């Protein structure tokens, strides 16, 4: 049955005479969850589970000490066990969307990260100088000159054949094209259709084998361009490898071997610089 409370009943009196201390500074901090003995027991049980798939989920009102208490329990347990390994997620060169996980001795993950940052910084300074060097530019020019010569060897015979048949081979930004040129100058669309039908048919007949030869030449030109691109890519790879493996990865390997072998990390480091 409800009743109206008196003002003095709306507060809980606390008599200081009932305490055995003069200040809370004299007290030992309480460790645990007040009134949550079962929660503490369940936490201890969960921490002791050594199987995959078991986790701890803590739920309760805010500002009740859940995080502090759980961390204290976990810290006490961890202090009595071996220090776990460091796990580093690194780039997977075989599958960029699935990073690789490297297991390293405790504390070595940060060392590897710092060393890689230093190595990358060195490469950023070294590589531009290599690609701007006279030797690299000379080899690059040699590839381009060889490509131009091979292209010219393909195009020149077609130009001669087209001229002999009353056509010209046009070199446009979009590629090569044949155009009728009975008088030596390419005809416009309007000029071609102004010719007698017999002349138009004659030019179309003469142009048909030339178009077939043009398709063959274009295929050869694409082949030469792909070959030049591959040679250029290989040149870039060789220069980049030389600039990153000496002394970059070698010094990184020595630094880590001085602290103990970590084969997986070094294999990844060598792969990253190759």
Account of the 3D structure:
The chain has 274 residues and is mainly α. The protein has a domain at 128-246. 57% of the residues lie in helices and 8% in strands. The protein is built from seven helices and four strands. It has helices at 37-47, 66-79, 108-131, 134-164, 189-194, 197-257, 263-272, and strands at residues 86-90, 100-104, 167-172, 175-180. The strands form two sheets. The chain has a two-stranded antiparallel ribbon. The protein has a two-stranded antiparallel ribbon with strand order 3-4. β3 (167-172) and β4 (175-180) form a beta hairpin. α3 (108-131) crosses α6 and α4 packs antiparallel against α6. The model has no long low-confidence stretch (mean pLDDT 84).
What brief labels describe this structure?
274 residues, mainly alpha, two-stranded antiparallel ribbon, 57% helix, elongated
What is the arithmetic mean of pLDDT? 84
Strand content: 5-15%
Largest beta sheet: what is the strand line-up? 1-2
| Helix/strand/pairing category | mainly alpha
- Name the poorly predicted regions: none
Main sheet overview: 2 strands, antiparallel
**What is the share of helical residues?**
55-70%
**H/E order of the elements?**
HHEEHHEEHHH
Please give the count of helices: 7
Q: Describe the global form.
A: elongated
- Straight-line N-to-C gap: 84 Å
Gyration radius (Cα, Å) is: 40 Å
